[in-house]
Amino acid sequence: MKLTAYVTDGHTIDIRPAPAERPWMDETENRHAYRCLPLTMANAHGWEIHCTAGFSAIWNGGRGLDAVTVTPDVDALPVAMSHFGFGVLTFHMPCLFRTEAGFDLMVCGPINRPKDSIAPLSGLIEIDWSPYTFTMNWRFTRPWSAVRFQKGEPFCHIMPVRRGEIEAVEPELRVLSDNPELKQKHDAWSESRNRFNAELKQPGSEAQAEKWQKLYHRGVEPDGTPAGIADHHTRLKVKPFKKPA
């Protein structure tokens, strides 16, 4: 599936595959946050768009456009502004994205990158036909608390999704005992998990040497046999956008 970014003439965009790493995860003890495979897979699921210049912004709690003040770095062009009011900070996107027919673009804040005093807003855009640019918006969560975006800091995350696929899902609620095989596997995992956590406290134990239970990461059943999932992923290799020749 092709995803093309048509940059408007006279502008540039800094867009890169989203990395699995996060500074706050690096700072956890022994980098143990990286043991969570769902977390690292989500981190890298798409592309990040980065600030081309640094700036600071603050919201005074008001509803008008003048309630948000943006201060670009010295000699830097503004990359965000107050456009909608109500404490919203807006980044204009200098390009049009195009996919093959039937795909939308999920646009959200950088995944698993919390930022104090401001939160990203998400959007879903039909980009297989739309000739319109879109904005990436963040909403302040409290007044008089300045926020800072550095040059090179990601402010937007994008990923294509197939249109209408969520509407084809037929969700239902059932009790686990309705699926005896799944219940047996879950019970076996729960027992092994409790045993593993208890052994972690025993010096010299196999659990201490293992450090963390890697069943899901390895794609195996609770008894250690392969789950038989041919496309089990532990790392994503998202391609960078090709530059024009």
The strand line-up of the biggest sheet is: 2-3-13-8-10
Percent of residues in β-strands: 25-35%
| Biggest sheet layout | 5 strands, antiparallel
- The CATH class of the largest domain: Mainly Beta
Q: What Rg do the Cα atoms give?
A: 23 Å
Number of strands: 13
How much helix is in the residues?
10-25%
Distance between the termini: 20 Å
Kindly report the CATH topology of the largest domain. Answer: Deoxyuridine 5'-Triphosphate Nucleotidohydrolase, Chain A
Nutshell version of this structure?
The chain is an alpha+beta fold. It is built from five helices and 13 strands. The protein has a five-stranded antiparallel sheet, with no helix packed on it. Strands 5-4-12 form a three-stranded antiparallel sheet, with no helix packed on it.
Secondary-structure map:
Layout: E1 3-7, E2 14-17, H1 23-26, H2 37-43, E3 47-50, E4 55-59, E5 68-72, E6 88-92, E7 95-99, E8 103-108, E9 118-120, E10 123-126, E11 135-140, E12 147-149, E13 154-162, H3 180-199, H4 206-210, H5 215-218
Antiparallel strand pairs: 1-7, 2-3, 3-13, 4-5, 4-12, 6-11, 8-10, 8-13, 9-11
